[in-house]
Amino acid sequence: MQLDSLTLHNFKNIPEASLEFSPKINGFLGDNGMGKSNLLDAIHFLSFCKSFTGVTDAMMIHSGEEFAMARGHYTRNGVAEELSLGLATGRRKTLKRGGKEYTRLSEHIGSFPLVMAAPQDTDLVRGAGEERRRWMDMVISQGSRAYLEALIRYNTALEQRNKLLRDGCVDHNLYDAVELQMDFAAEIITSQRLSWAARLQEIARRFYTAIAGEGSETITLSYDSPSSRPGGLKALLDEVRRRDETVRHTTVGPHRDDIEMMLNGMPMRRTASQGQCKTFTTALRLAQYEFLREASGMRPLLLLDDIFDKLDATRVERIISLVTADNFGQIFITDTNRTHLDEIMSRTGGDYRLWLVDHGTFQDIKK
């Protein structure tokens, strides 16, 4: 899959932009705050119907304006496709595919697979479990419609149970009805998370070694869910119901599970250096790419936002070698350092485009 062109209007700090892309490498050079990341976020929004940074839809609209628009023309499985996103103050966002609006935005997830690596990825290591769960859900949902549907059902039932707890309900029949729905959905969620974590660890270890070099650094990625044990989530919810009635929210289930990330047998969030964290998260993103390629049968778009920061020259060189190999398809990459971009471009055999970004404007830099 590739993005052939993108048109933006009032998107963040980009008042107007119309770009045509190379099918291989597309580089964006400029100082911080000029709009490089905002362009990548627009591409991310077209795939996921939300910002990579997690900001509200209203914050995606250029300051002082009432609406924003993003339109992308793609080639997907050899077929031309158009996506059109509309954001307006006080209205719900709209996404159209081929001119037809989606009834539910969840129907779109996974159709245009994408992987984005950015400085915020350190939150996957050092942040709260919510960051890692959001990441898991985003990746697996792109490759599994059954997972996404189970996740939606689970979250709906979870909110129903939390409402019963907040209201002080003591009718166990009501709890049983909701908890059975949660249990059924949780079985699908946890089984797919377990399979995904095992597969991702296998791939990520390979990429980590390729970036860090052969040596003593060994990474581990593991997912453990109490609700995947004998008896399932229903038995666990029965066990903790008295405690949940006291705190008035559900304290166990897939919405509370986490991933353990280890470096040489020690928790990475406590022991890893900045460079090791950056190497690990880059390896995770490249592993995510391979996982989605296998799951979708398409090459996802790969967005690399300032990924070379905090890495030594040797690791930068190894990442460049990886992403310019034939295993990857279309790439969008930002940097403040032209040396990195020139090195990447030199390996593409001339199939690239490069822009200078300045205060939301994009100037095509000729070869």
Structure description:
This protein is of the alpha/beta class and 367 residues long. It is built from 10 helices and 15 strands. The strands form 3 sheets. The chain has a 6-stranded antiparallel sheet with strand order 2-1-4-5-6-7, covered by helices on one side. A hairpin with a 2-residue loop joins strand 10 and strand 11. It starts with a strand and ends with a strand. The model has no long low-confidence stretch (mean pLDDT 92).
> What is the CA-based Rg, rounded?
22 Å
Tell me the β content: 15-25%
Question: Considering DSSP H and I runs of 4 or more, what fraction of the residues is helical?
Answer: 40-55%
Number of strands: 15
Sheet/helix structural class: alpha/beta
Q: Kindly report how far apart the N and C termini lie.
A: 25 Å
Mean pLDDT over all positions? 92
Unreliable stretches (pLDDT < 50, length at least 5) are none
Sketch the topology as an H/E string, one letter per element.
EEEHEEEEEHHHHEHEEHHEHEHEE
Shape: globular
Order of strands, widest sheet: 2-1-4-5-6-7
Biggest sheet character: 6 strands, antiparallel
Number of helices, counting only DSSP H or I runs of 4 residues or more: 10
